[in-house]
Amino acid sequence: MLAVFFDGIVGGLQLGVLAVGLSLLYGLGGVLNLAHGALAVSAAIVASLAMDAGWPAVPAAVVGVLVAAAIGLGLDQTIMRPVYRLRGESRVLLSLLLTLGAAFAIDGLLGWRYPFGGLSLRIGGGPVTILGVRMRSGSLLASAIAITAIGALTWLLRRTRTGRAVRSVIQDEVGAQLVGINPGRVRTLIFTLSAALAGLVAITQSMTAPVSVSSGFSLTILALIVTVVGGLGSAPGALLAGLLLGIVNALSSFYIGTYITAIILLAAAALTILVRPAGLLGRAD
Amino acid sequence: MPTWDPGHQAMLEVTDLSVGYRGADVVHRVSFEVRAGETVALIGSNGAGKTTTLRALCGLLMPSSGRVRFAGQDVTGTATHRLSRRGMAYVPAERHLFPGMTVEENLVLGAYPDRADPARQESVFELFPTLRARRAQLAGTMSGGEQQMLAVARALMSAPRLLMLDEPTTGLAPVLAEAAYDALDRLSAEGMTILVSEQQVPLALRVADRGYVLEEGHIRLEGDATSLEHNPDVRRAYLGIG
Q1: Does B109 contact A at CB distance below 8 Å?
Q2: Domain range annotation of chain A
Q3: What is the mean pLDDT of residues A75-95?
């Protein structure tokens, strides 16, 4: 039981990191990025190619994450431009269509060039016993990286001028413009950061289970579920929802079966929306 | 960069400005100016085009024609955040504060992209002592009067060259409306250049040096505050005196 619970926390931390960028992006500009999982997979494939070429794991992973960030930046500067020119419902709809198109393009390209591509990082060292539970060192390293990423992001949002600017655009975009903040630049920053975090999650996931070229859409859907449960636009909400859903995921996979877990996660998301339409920590307005 | 002599040129010079929504102009070829150190009132009833005019000046609306010069430079169509960094501060009637942040965080953001100047913050707290007591309170949980103070205070944190306010008395009880204008009076006495739109005309004319009367998107009258106060049309329409 405790072992399953711990597994849930390991997965949940990563779900949180996967979803937080998506959630911030919705809060900033009312857009959803359906290419999120494809960006994550790009990082994994680039890292695996680098390792095939003889690179050590750490620089290969760094390059993978940087490439994901660069693709994110590219998307922000191209397909997101017309999206931000629209207002209201048409903006979110166009963002869904265009990022879905980008997801197909990235997935298609990777699937065509590297049909058997994938990343699975083997972390050395034997299992470590925590509270009587034997944990794989890969799980512990993945969790440590996720916690570090969460800590760095929290510091950025809470303690820096840039982070304050990000929060101000989420809370009141006109107010932010009036004090001299350029919302477009803030959105570019967060789109890029969100892509980097997605790439980072693909790397950490590959420490416990292989990430393949076809993992993109399931990663996107997981991220969307977590984002909705946590409350669109809320970074703490996404992290909390990631943790909770990670535990639900592990428990239901273990006690019920993997095949039905996706349905249970969706049911949990639907239930959250019925009880709290704004999500766990979303603003109810 | 062109040289700019504050003694001879207007801080804000609006020429033949037309602006509206979705192609239909609400404001038609208005021209007016605000000289450095002056307080100017833009008066008119609801729907006269005051807010539309101010939104066009600060870059939130794109004018359909006309020109806006600010501090000696043509700024027509310049983005809001750029104008803010150049020293044009706008306090909208809806305030647009950051509700989930504390009073202090709102003030710090007011100075963006610069670091908040402690001396500046001190002078803002002297103008609005209530805000000092509430510096750790979330902006969204404050009363309307306090939010109005915070909106003005946030604008002042950037040490603006021009302070523009849209109906600062919106939703305020009479006592608080008076207090808001007392604060503007003090700022004006300290030399701040102010443009304020208002439908509570007596309050605005008490503080202003000059005024423009906006009706149905046209400037109908202009003059110094005293002459407007004694103008029979103004008295009938805005002061409730027949």
Answers
A1: yes
A2: 10-213
A3: 95
